[in-house]
Design brief:
cytoskeletal motor activity; about 0% strand; elongated; structural molecule activity; mainly alpha; FliE; flagellum; cell projection
């Protein structure tokens, strides 16, 4: 008999639906993460451009430091493009998905 009482005690009501018009949870969102990443990539590219311009102007700059800055900027841009490609691919997969 105790098993029947345990089953009877379970509520069979569906939970209330989530409020669709509620504001999103506070905190850093995905858009903020992308903006921060893009800002870092932009800073890396600007640093490489500055180093390259200083080298071209004849200022005392080490060639290996300029090459390191350029390579770091190239890799940052390449990684961000790959992230963008994955996001676009995921979005297209979602739009093709049948409901």
């Amino acid at each position: 008999m105790t098993a029947i009482k345990a089953v009877a005690a379970v509520s069979w009501e569906a939970p209330a639906p989530a409020d669709l018009h509620a504001s999103p949870p506070a905190g850093d969102g995905f858009a903020r993460l992308l903006q921060t990443g893009l800002g870092e990539v932009n800073a890396s590219v600007r640093a490489a451009e500055t180093a390259m311009n200083n080298l071209a102007a004849g200022k005392p700059v080490q060639l290996h430091e300029v090459m390191i800055d350029l390579e770091q900027a190239r890799l940052s841009v390449q990684m961000f493009v790959q992230v963008r490609n994955r996001l676009v691919e995921s979005f297209l997969d979602l739009t093709r998905m049948q409901m």
